[in-house]
Amino acid sequence: MTRPAPSRALSALLFLLICLAPRAASAQVCATPGKDGPATLSGVVNTYFPGSSTASAGATTVSVGGARADGASPGITEGDLLLVIQMQDADINSENGSRYGDGVNGGDARGSTNVATSSAGRYEYVVAMNNVTTAGGSVQIRGTNGGGLVNTYTNANAGTQGQRRFQVVRVPQYSSATLSSTLTAAPWDGATGGILAFDVAGALNLNSAVVSVAGRGFRGGGGRMMSGGTGQAATDRVVMSTTNTHGSKGEGIAGTPRYTYNSVTGAVEDNVFEGLPNGSHARGAPANAGGGGTDSAPNLNEENSGGGGGANGGAGGLGGNTWRTTSATGGYGGVQFPAAANRLVMGGGGGAGTRNNSPLLPVASSGGSGGGLVMVRAGTVSGSGDILADGADAYQATLNDGGGGGGAGGSVVVVAAGGGLGGLRVFARGGRGGDAWRNQPTGSTPPGERHGPGGGGGGGVVLTSGAAAVTVTGGATGLTTQAADSYGATGGAAGTSSTTTAASIPGASMGAQCLPTLSATKTTSTPTLNNTSSGVAATYTIVVSNVANRGAAVRVSVSDTLPAGFTYASTGSISYTGTATRTSTTDPAAGDAVPVWRAFRVPGGSSVRITFTVNIAAGVSGTFQNPATGFYADPVRTVDTTDASVSYNSASSTGEDVTVVAPPLIRLVKSCVSPANCETTPTGHRPGTELTYSITFTNEGGRSAQNVYIVDVIPYSVDMTNSVNVRTTELRLGSTVFTPNTSTLTLPAANIRHFTDAVPFGAVAPWTPSANYSPSGAAGTFDPAVTFIGWQLSGSMPPNTSGTVTFTVRIR
Fold it and tell me: Above 60 in pLDDT, residue 203?
């Protein structure tokens, strides 16, 4: 497919797509992968907080001021991913001579004395451990290896050293994301902004977008129309902005000049204070910022040299010469920054040219802003798209004044865990230097009214893990007169590009490395239950745990589909290990067949333990295996309502098995066994006939019967006329027999009972002695007084066993 050429006027975008590389589990620190769900990204997605006081290495809290109004609106909540980054911090020699910048006598008056060891560009990802509103406050953090900050971050106004600033950026954690061409960052304002950073746990779709933060980095020097002053010289490297002469330096890691040009708003800004030591005008280049032009006639400020280009991966170009004196006093270009995967800066701003004319062009001679910094980490990347991290061109319509220097390209790091960078193009080009009176005809002596054009901005820094197309060219010079003469100005140097891995990125790991890994177990403290006529209760415990050194699982719910005949009764307790919490209380309702507990958050190394009781209906018996399931927001979801799940496999263990045993059930079968074919009533038999009855009892229940007792009535008939019982038989003493088929069931002789009149039905063994009757007479004799006979057995009668009792009566 054919892509439109990216606009050079757009701001620079630094994309950091971090490659998935193995890390030791003990070292991994994770936030909440996918916390912000799926999204199509547009506008500004980051919330920017300025550091309000210095945060030392090892600190577990960071103090921040109120969030920037034109950033995203969310405050900080527990589990957020934060970027802590030192934006400005570099020492420079501030002498007004050749030592300016790097302190080298006889040098080019540019650079820094400690650029290799300063804190500028050092950063780390951390995890928020508390909530902080956009009003600011104290952010509790967890950093590398679960400790505090690795680096020290400084916030200080300029003094003997330039302004030092750090910021804390809320980094959205998307489950999946699609780019749009409106995605950008708030431009750097001297305290916050300039950064686009987000993390995608799952898939990032480039969507043919052209995403840009071009010119949203360090600002250029503000072009000012000044009539000159006294006490300055054509050799000046640094003077105060109040001297009314020379051009303003650009902004960079060494501090902020009083006057800056914002390439996004197109306005010159008065920052009120000098943010560079000993002033912010003249050609000395502080660290990676371009120097302003030094005018060779400072008393009139009319010679109009060009500003130097900003720097980053490549050095900035030199500003062009002066008008009539043709002196080479243009601003020096900024010095290359030693970038690495763990140290990244925005592109330095270009310096302003000197100016004494163009009253109708309020921003003439201004330098361009550098490219911004974008850090994006993703699981997989698909599609094609352009990432612009270009430095902005200096102002191009300057007439008879010096041109400003171009802004430097930003820093770009592109790494993806699952690859897919073949469709990505990354641009971190230096901005073009500003033209100076480009429409002036070419003369002969000298050739026209030449003024100093601006130097080109240096190229940026790009790190990738794959085959993305990368362009880091330096910016071209501005030109003067119709002869298109660079007139002493030089272009910016090309930037750098190389490869990197996720392991090179400091602090909390990327979401793709931190996906929560949950497990679920279920046990019971009531493995065996004896059911009753009113049912019985069982108690279960479900534990849902997250593996250590993983991201938090959110929107966690726990569900249990109960067996038939089981219903939820009540929750006994809910307890936590680690830092697991519950955002709201949502418990099941009594009687639920599928109880669900909702609204848990389970970070890595933490767990939720739920103990609850269920009712089991009467008549339920058997062994029941019962699974359990945990649901949580899928960290790589493409639809926000999609959940991932983890289940306890009930077949994997007997830990949750509940065996419900049915109560004993005694079945009685009574028959007359002698004489043959006798009936259970004396009808049809003559007086004196002996009838032998047999009662067979069988335990057809689920568990052993204990202390069985059997009572039978001595047969009788009913006088229908008078409705009274008529005694028709008499018990043969000594005829009672017990025949067991289990050795556990016995019948002590003393446990054969005889009764008269009092009916023992419902009596509980042992029967009360007052109900007993002791018949008189020897065995084989008959006692007409006995109305009931009972056997009180001792011991246990297991299921599916039986016994038999017999007795004999004689018809009267």
Answer: yes
